[in-house]
Description:
Blueprint: E1 3-4, E2 21-27, E3 33-41, E4 48-52, H1 66-71, E5 75-79, E6 89-90, H2 98-112, E7 118-123, H3 125-135, E8 141-147, H4 168-180, H5 186-193, H6 200-207, H7 217-224, H8 233-245, E9 252-257, E10 283-285, H9 292-295, H10 297-312
Parallel strand pairs: 4-5, 4-7, 7-8, 8-9, 9-10
Antiparallel strand pairs: 1-6, 2-3, 3-5
Amino acid sequence: MEFKRTSDSCFGNLADCPFAPNYVEVDDQEGGKLRMHYVDEGPKDGQLVVMIHGNPTWSYMWRKLIPVLAGKGYRAIAIDLIGSGRSDKPTKMTDYTIGRHEAWVKQAVFEEIGVKDAHFILHDWGGNIGLRAIADNQDKVSSIIMSNTGLANRDPNKLIKKMSRKGAGLMRAFQLWIRVNKGWKFWKTISKITLSEMPQADIDSYAAPYPDKSYLTGLRKFTQMLPTRNDNPILTENWQALQKLKDFEKPFLNLFSDKDQIAPRGYKSVRPAIPGTRDYDPIILKGGSHFLLEDIPEDYAREVIKFYESLKA
């Protein structure tokens, strides 16, 4: 599998992100290896917190939460999905599937890093991929926080009566626009969606891993995998993961924002189907867009710590 590897020189001026890089290798599923990056901060013997981002972000999105977690004695790990951030970036659209992302996360997190007894925080596509990875590793997970994401699914035993999914029109238009615009300046998209005015240094930092459009393939492919049709295999794969997660009785908090433009009610896809969600009403933070860690990072961190501290009682 051919891939691009972003030069370390691209990361020399990241704003508010002083974290040292760490790497593991994962199978590219074609006989080769890919390098996956992760941040690892806080005491090595601290309770683990694993953060999984979505699209088009990378581990940089957790930069304001990581120091809070580390300061409270937690070991904070934030991965970069393959194709994103400091991780290797396969160059063909066909190199990416959600199934492959799931396999890469499982290998990196549970096998190579050796995560166990860990809290997980999931955002956007990180929710879909993370929940699927957790479904087969529930014994290694202590709790889940899911933010502005969901687990869209379809029972494969039910007949498809309508091919187009609700609200698919706008998503299909977005997919077409990305197919045409191979140089998608996603960092501008993030800054337009956020409700607060992002500093230019932060916008530039989001763009840093992608020195030219040839590095954007993985991000562009995520947009093409959005389930706009009921025959998208992601939906039945998610349904199968959801059946496994019906055994997950550990704490599961939905921590959303009130101005999310993407998945404002994504918590309904897991609650109350997953038992762990039933004791925790969704918390909807005020003033946050889809990228709530840009808009209300202090409020978000406060609720995360409050949740974790409550589990110690």
